[in-house]
Amino acid sequence: MRAGIITIGDELLIGQTIDTNSAWIGEKMSLAGFDVCRKITVHDKREDILNALSDFTGKSEVVLITGGLGPTSDDITKPALCEFFKTRLVVNNEVLEMIGQMMMRRGFPMNEKNSKQAEVPESCRVLTNAVGTAPGMWFEKEGTRFISMPGVPYEMKYIMEQHVLPEIRKLFTSQVIVHKNLMTYGVSEAVLSDLLEEFEAGLPEEIRLAYLPSWGINKLRLTGTGKSLEEIKDLIDRQVARLYQTIPDLIYAEDEQTFEEVTGRLLAQRHKTLCTAESCTGGNIAHMITSVPGSSAYFLGSVVAYDNRIKTGLLKIDPAIIGQHGAVSEPVAMAMAENARKIFNSDFSVATTGIAGPDGGTNDKRVGTVWVSVASGSGTLAVKHVFGTERIANIRRFSLAALDLLRKQIISG
Amino acid sequence: MRAGIITIGDELLIGQTIDTNSAWIGEKMSLAGFDVCRKITVHDKREDILNALSDFTGKSEVVLITGGLGPTSDDITKPALCEFFKTRLVVNNEVLEMIGQMMMRRGFPMNEKNSKQAEVPESCRVLTNAVGTAPGMWFEKEGTRFISMPGVPYEMKYIMEQHVLPEIRKLFTSQVIVHKNLMTYGVSEAVLSDLLEEFEAGLPEEIRLAYLPSWGINKLRLTGTGKSLEEIKDLIDRQVARLYQTIPDLIYAEDEQTFEEVTGRLLAQRHKTLCTAESCTGGNIAHMITSVPGSSAYFLGSVVAYDNRIKTGLLKIDPAIIGQHGAVSEPVAMAMAENARKIFNSDFSVATTGIAGPDGGTNDKRVGTVWVSVASGSGTLAVKHVFGTERIANIRRFSLAALDLLRKQIISG
Fold first, then answer.
1. Is residue A120 a contact partner of residue A137, using CB atoms and an 8 Å limit?
2. Does B47 reach chain A within 8 Å, measured CB to CB?
3. What are the structural domains, with CATH classification, of chain A?
4. Strand A62-66 to strand A144-149: parallel, antiparallel, or no bridges (unpaired)?
5. CB-closest option in A15, A23, A282 to B23
6. Mean pLDDT, each 10-residue run in order, chain B (413 residues)
7. What pTM was estimated for this model as a whole?
8. Contact between A350 and A403 (Cβ < 8 Å)
9. Which of A300, B144, B230, B401 is the most exposed place for a label (fewest CB within 10 A)?
10. Contacting residues of B for A291, CB less than 8 Å apart
C-alpha cells in the first residue's frame, strides 16, 4: 500500500515555515501500514497543484494534501481541485452552517469570504472540521483517494484523526508495519555497520534495519512488515534481543530518548544527585540536563570554569597541576570533577576540559580534544576523545561523551 | 530562475525526522533570487531517486539534493546518480585523503566503508566537505545543475555556503535583489506591525517588508528588487534609517546576528568581562555565550545555582532573603548578580531566577515568571517578565530577556 503527501504553500518553499505537518502525517500513515513513498511541496499555483495531483494518480492508494485552503488561498486550490476532478464548486449547507456557528461563537459577523469557504467541489465527500472553517474533502480518481485538508496543524490533525485514519484503517487492513528504535552512542556509523554485518545478514526478510545518524548518535530503526501484528512484534522483539547481545555497550536507550532524559531517569530512580564542572562545554551539559522537566529533583548546579582563574579559584584546582599538565589534561579533568563533587556535595559529578575551536589548538593538543571525567562515591574516571574542528558540533559531542561516561558510571554503581 | 529541492531519506517520509534542511535551502535560494518551485522527498530507493531527478531535468536551473550519502546509504544514491548522469564511480584521491585525515584526528581506523565514501561519479565536480566525510557533487544535464549534498545539516550548510551559493550568485546575475535584516526584540509580531503601520505605508514599490518571528525575536527583512545595485542599496539604506527612527529601542542588531554575538562583540570592543549566575536558565546563557568563537576573551564562567543550597552556599545569598522573598524575587536576582560579579571579579554579571515549568508555579508566581538582573560598575538592575507555560520556550525567552538587559547596560555603561 502506497501513500503520498502533497503540501501546498509558498511559505514552505521559501523557508518561512518548517513543514511539520508532513512528518506527522508520514508517521501516522507508516504506523497504519502504508509505504509513504513520496512527498511533494508546491506553490499556491494552479498548474503546480495539478502537476502534483497527476504525479500520484493511479500510483498511490492514498494521497494526503495539506494547505492551500483558508480565506486567502481558497481561490487557487479549490478551482484546481475542480479542474482536476472535473467538477464544479457548489455551496455545502452543512459547512455553511458550521462556519456561521463558529463566527457567531467568536463574535465575528459572517462575511463574503466565509460563505465562499462553504463552497466545495460537487464530487467530493465533505469531512467536517469542528475546529476551523475549512472542511476536509475526499476525492477518488483511478483507484487513488485524494484527501485535501487545511494547513493549520491542529485542523489537519483533527480531520486525520476523526475521519481519515479510521476510514483508511477500515479500507486497508491487509498489512501491519511495526517500528522499533534503539539509540546508540560510541562509534561512527561506519564502524557500527561493520559491527552489525553479521546481525544484518541474519535478519528475517520481514525486518529491515535503518541507520539514522545525528550528532554522534546513531539511531537504529527496525521495521517489520507482515500480516499479523503479534507475529511482527515477536519478530522485532527477537531482533532487539539480538542487537543487545551484539552491541551491549553501545545502546543507551530505546525509542526516542535523549541522553539527558536517560541519565536523568537513572539518577531519579536511584535518588542520586548530580553537578557539573564545565570548561569547554560552557554550560551546555547543565543546559541539556535542565531542559528535562523535573530535573531539579537530581540536578544541583554547575560551575562553568571557562577562565583558568575560575578553575583555580572557585573550583580550587591546584595551579601547579595546570602549570605542569595544561588545563586540557587528565589530572585537571579529574580534579575538576572531584572538587565540584565536594563543593556541591553531590553523588555524581561530570567535568569537561578541552578545545572546542576554531582557535586554541596546538600541535600537542589539537582542536577537538577533550578530557571528560566523572567522579562518584566509587572513584573518579577520565577519558580522552578527539573530535572534529567545528565548534558547535564539538560542544555537542563533548557533552554527549561526558553524559555517556556518566550513564555508565551510574549503572555500574 | 527556478530552483528545486530533493530530499532523500526514509526517515523524512515516515516522520522520524522533520526536514529542516529544505527550509534552510529554500530561504537561501529565495534570497539569491530563485523561485523555489517544488520540493520532492523520496525513499533511499534507486527508482524513486531517478524519477525525482527526471522531474526537474530541463525545468529548473538548479536542483539541490540532500541526504542519501554516508557510509550506509551510499550504496543506493551514488549508483543512482551514476545511472542518471551516465557515468561510473571512481575513487577521488582528494576526498580519500580528507576522510583519512578526519578518521585519524578522531582516532578511528580507516575501514572499507570509509574508502568507499571516497568514490564519486566520474563526471561530477567534487565540492570538498571540511566538516564531514561525504563530499558535495555538482552535475549538469540539459541546462539543469544538480548539486548532491549529505543530509547532516551542518555539512549541507558548509557545502552550500562555501561552494554552491557563491557559484550560483556568479552564474545568475540578471536581476539585483538586496536583502537587509534588522533583528528586533521586545514586542510581539502583532504589536510590531501596529508600530510599523505608517512605516509600511511609506515604503517605495521596489521594497518589501517581511516579518520573520521566532522565539520572541522578530526579524524584519527588507527586500529590494531592481536593475541597479547602487539604486536598490540606496533605497534600502533610507528605509533602514526610517526603521531606526521608528523603533530605536527594539532593534538589537543588523543582519543575522544573534544576541550572544552582539553582546559578545560589545564586551570585546570595550575589553570588559562577563559571568553569569543562573537558576531557571540552567546554564543556557553560558552555553549561548560560549557558542560564539572567541568568547574566552570576555567570558569568565558561570555558577548554575539550580538548587537553593547552591544559591546560599557557592553564591553566598543570605538565606533570610530567600526565606522572606522566595527564590524567585527581585532581591534574590540582584544578590545573585552582585555576588557572582564579586566572586568572578568580572565587569558585568547576569543573573536569572524563575519558574520554567511545567511544574513549580503558584498562584502568586506562575510558571513563566522570571527575574533577570544585571550588575556592573554602575549599579544593579532587575526586571521581571512573565512568559508562557512551555519549558523549553521559557528557558530560551528567559535567556533572551537577560541578554537584552545586559546589552542595554553595556551600551549605556
1. yes
2. no
3. 2-171 (3.40.980.10), 176-254 (3.30.70.2860), 260-412 (3.90.950.20)
4. parallel
5. A15
6. 93 87 93 90 93 94 91 78 96 90 80 83 94 92 96 94 93 79 88 91 91 81 88 96 96 91 97 98 98 97 96 96 97 98 98 95 92 97 92 94 96 87
7. 0.80
8. yes
9. B230
10. 282, 391-392, 395
